[in-house]
Amino acid sequence: MTNLVVAPDIQTSGLSAEPRRGKRSATHLWTRYILGRLGGLLGVVVALLAITFLLIQFVPGDPARNIVGVTATQEQVEVVRERLGLNDPFLLQAWNYVSGLLGGDLGNSFVTQQPIVELIGQRLPLTAAVAVGGLVVVLIVGFPVGIAVAFAERRGGSKVIAGAYNAAAGFLGAIPEYITGTILVMVFALTLQWLPAQGGQGFNGLILPAIAVGLAPAAVMSRIARNETRSVLGQEYIATARSKRISEGRLLFGHALPNIATSSLTMGGILLVALLGGTVIVENVFNIPGLGTQIVQSILSSDYPAIQGIILTLGLLAALVNLAVDILLGVLDPRVLTKSKAA
């Protein structure tokens, strides 16, 4: 009797321990995954600090001379250089830069004496609005178009349509943002007068800049989504689902789309970072008072703290975007966690 009682208890204990081991294993994988990504983020931050500091050493021009003017004497220039700390030893300048950042102080503008944190806070919302608008263009144009073309080809679509798509996607993906923006201004602002040429003024002022910054990434994303869709539609589980007479809508949203999104998301993170770079260029085309126009003005005036602060901010945003994409990828495809452990 004793054996009969103990045996079920042992068996039950083994069954109940298995889910706990599974939960601990999943938690362990996620912990390793997140720590690995945070370690990568820390490495990016250190690299950004080094790059932003060293880059300034090679910026042409003397900010002290720009401040006092070309008619000032060399003694007056040296006084300003001393006040700005430009005559300090290299290591002391580096220490002052890093310690200031750790204290949340990015310094003050050499030109306007405005705190860099305040300057970035004023201009970042417009830059973010243009970048988000470009992302919307990518999501509502690039991703659906690529999937639709792949489904059309799978169902025996015309080769003429496929050829036209390839030509259009290749052409749009290769056009620089400033050319796209210039064409959009000429057509929709100057000729048709549907939208303002000056960007950033309300919702209408963001439409053309968002299209300009998002059109090329949308073309690239559509090609990625098309290739991934064709690959997914060729898998055996899709053929099995078709044999069960599943509707096209259920086949797309229930079976194919999750795998398409997971595969496309890997390259999508790179495109999101590219949107930030494109935003800097587009802001100057549409005269948007964001970080893009500010960094150009800062380079021309040798405003070192402003250049450092803006580059550091954009770099951190790009790193955080990649971190968010990595986490989302782990949620959508748990196999990534296992691959990360193996790596």
Question: Care to describe what's here?
Answer:
It is a single chain. Residues 1-17 have low confidence and may be disordered. The chain has two domains: 63-102, no CATH class; 121-336, MetI-like fold, CATH 1.10.3720. 81% of the residues lie in helices and 0% in strands. It is flat. It starts with a helix and ends with a helix. The protein is mostly helical.
How would the blueprint of this fold be written?
Blueprint: H1 2-56, H2 63-68, H3 74-84, H4 90-102, H5 116-154, H6 159-174, H7 177-191, H8 204-233, H9 236-243, H10 248-285, H11 291-300, H12 304-332, H13 335-342
Helix pairs in contact: 1-12, 1-13, 5-8, 5-10, 5-12, 6-8, 7-8, 7-10, 8-10, 10-11, 10-12, 11-12
Query: Structural class from helices and strands?
Result: mainly alpha
CATH evolutionary superfamily of the largest domain: MetI-like
Mean pLDDT, nearest integer?
80
Shape: flat
Number of separate helices = 13
| Biggest sheet statistics | none
Question: How many individual β-strands?
Answer: 0
Q: Low-confidence spans: pLDDT under 50, at least 5 residues?
A: 1-17
Termini separation: 51 Å
- Rg is 27 Å
What do we call the CATH topology of the largest domain? MetI-like fold
The CATH level-2 architecture of the largest domain is identified as Orthogonal Bundle
